[in-house]
Design goal:
By secondary structure, this protein is mainly alpha-helical. It is built from five helices and three strands; from the N terminus they run βββααααα. It has one domain. A three-stranded antiparallel β-sheet has the order 1-2-3. This is DUF433 domain-containing protein.
Length: about 100
């Protein structure tokens, strides 16, 4: 982990910014902020394990490194889509639906 100019933020060996001492990624906080339009206070109410200063630091880091964080969010979304597609099994689905209809 490397420290950053942002208090409470560390970047791991993979280049992912996290809240220091937690496994919470800056992009997870940014995703909630963007998807739900939550401000720092609302995020603090939802993410009870994080302090308000940690959340403010995460949002500040996100906006200062927006392009990089957005690219990480896109990559994570693509990976989730690929995993979902690779796990779809039409034969299994047919068997389950067949048994449910009996």
């Amino acid at each position: 982990m490397q420290t950053t100019a942002w208090p409470f933020i560390q970047v791991n060996d993979c280049g992912i910014a996290c809240i220091s001492g937690t496994s919470t990624k800056v992009t997870e906080i940014a995703e909630c902020h963007l998807a739900y339009r939550w401000d720092a206070e609302q995020l603090h109410q939802q993410l009870t394990g994080l302090s308000l200063p940690q959340i403010h630091a995460a949002l500040g880091y996100y906006y200062e490194h927006k392009d990089e964080c957005d690219a990480q969010l896109r990559t994570a979304c693509e990976q989730a889509d690929n995993l979902r597609l690779s796990s779809e099994d039409d034969e299994l689905r047919r068997k389950v639906l067949s048994r449910l209809s009996q």
